[in-house]
Amino acid sequence: MTKRSPQGSNAMQRTLIWDVPTRLFHWTLASSFVGAWLTTGSDRWLAVHVFLGYLMLGLIAFRVVWGLVGTHYARFASFWYGPRAALSYLRGVLHGTAARHIGHNPTGSLAIYILLLLTLAVGLSGFFTLGGEEQQGALSGAMSLVQSRTFKKLHELTANLMLLVIVGHLAGVVVESFLHHENLARSMLTGTKLAAPGVPTASPRWGVAILMLTLTLGFGGWWFFYAIDAKLDQARGESEGAHVKFIGAKLADNAVWRDECGSCHLAFHPNLLPSRSWNAIMAGQAQHFGSDLGLEATAKATLLAFATANSADSQQTEASYKIMRSLKPADSPLRITETPYWIKKHRNITLVQWQSAPIKSKANCAACHLDAEQGTFLDAAMQIPAGPSAPKASQ
Ligand code: HEC
Ligand code: HEC
Question: Residue 110, class by beta-carbon neighbours within 10 Å (0-12 exposed, 13-18 middle, 19+ buried)?
């Protein structure tokens, strides 16, 4: 749309400022941030959360390249202002005197650089947390659970800082839009702004945008249909030779344990309770939750040796580490389902769900954890079965 003027030459014209790849970058990054934020609450969404994290790291890498070779307004050179310029522009905004910028203004530019750095920090600290706490990703096995706590704190801190800067950025967009009577958010969608003739214009660069989309969708397809599936198969023990190895070391197994402890219920893996609990359970085997296990001395010794060597004290898994941290030194619970960590992790499951036919007991871990037999309790292996006896609204 062109504002008409008799001469025509000095009229403001709708001009392409933001090329398609820049806009695609902007909105994908923004929605990834929202998605990642929304998937922090539950471990069941971790696979999505991690995908968005990798995607954001990829987007940052793209933006750095595009800042060097992209179209005019996407280049760093076009918005390379120092902090002093940012502050004086902010002062101008407060006095209502700030000049309109076709590209990024100095304050907005500073926010962009801070956001790029923060996204990098959030992504990398998340990558380290994943390797340590979840024993997943390229760093699995390279870091301990204790070391990963520092990265997790850093991950949360940088994510919160990022939220803060985003709020500032949004406030800036609103204020600027009012100040200069233009809808900046819409410009980031359409790519155009009213500009005097002769200012540099951008070209759409559809080819690059289509390449970005293809890479993102390809990565998403691979991640959700192949990598996660391979991980699940591996967790279920179905496919030993999965190409993608996301899980940590396989946990120790013992035939006597499976035999003696797997007949009435799941043979709970020893990493779910401390050795003092296993000692108490073995000592009380003649009155085990109403049954006499009738174990002979040699079997008892074998079982106890296996249990204590692989107990939660050895902190081989995220579960064992966190169960230990949730217990007081004097606690030796006889149930996994009575440890504070277990209770906290399952507090959102309703009574109706617990009582539904496929579950029935809290100790029926395998109903919801596909890898309960292996004892790994991976995030991607969780599901809550829809029980036939769960009441439905109407039928
Ligand atoms: C004769 C059947 C039987 C055998 C064999 C048996 N258990 Fe149990 N066990 C039970 C019952 C019943 C419960 C209570 C289950 C419930 O509350 O749903 C239980 C519960 C448990 C729990 C607590 C589960 C929770 O709620 O966190 C642990 C731990 C446990 N058993 C360990 C063992 C070990 C170790 C062995 C092998 C030495 C073993 N059990 C063998 C019957 C058995
Ligand atoms: C009704 C289904 C259900 C049953 C039965 C169940 N769980 Fe869970 N469990 C879940 C869900 C859902 C989560 C994810 C909680 C969340 O949103 O973070 C979870 C989380 C966990 C976690 C945390 C995993 C992580 O990576 O943070 C552990 C460990 C765990 N469960 C162990 C057990 C054990 C051991 C048993 C059996 C004694 C058990 N669960 C029984 C549904 C169940």
Answer: buried
pLDDT in tens, 241-280: 333 334 556 789 999 999 999 999 999 999 999 999 999 9
Cβ neighbour number for residue 135 with a 10 Å cutoff:
24
Question: Hey, what amino acid is at 102?
Answer: I
Q: Which regions in the chain score pLDDT beneath 50?
A: 1-8, 239-246, 388-395
The Cα–Cα gap between 366 and 375 comes to 10
Q: Say if CB 75 and CB 148 are below 8 A apart.
A: no
**Unique residue bearing structure tokens 């596909």:** 370
Q: Which two tokens stand for residue 235?
A: 């967790």
Q: What distance in angstroms lies between residue 127's CA and the mean position of ligand 2's atoms? A: 23
Q: Are 227 and 246 in contact (CB under 8 A)?
A: yes
10-69 residue pLDDT tens = 788 999 999 999 999 999 999 999 999 999 977 778 888 999 999 999 999 999 999 999
Cα of 341 vs centre of ligand 2, distance in Å, is 10
175 Cα distance to chain centroid: 32
The answer to whether 19 and 204 are in contact (CB under 8 A) is yes
367 ligand 2 Cβ < 6 A = yes
**Ligand 2 pocket check for 336: Cβ under 6 Å:** yes
Q: Whose CA is nearest to atom 16 of ligand 2?
A: 42
- Hey, what are 12's tokens? 């403001």
Q: Is 112 in the pocket of ligand 1 (CB under 6 A)?
A: no
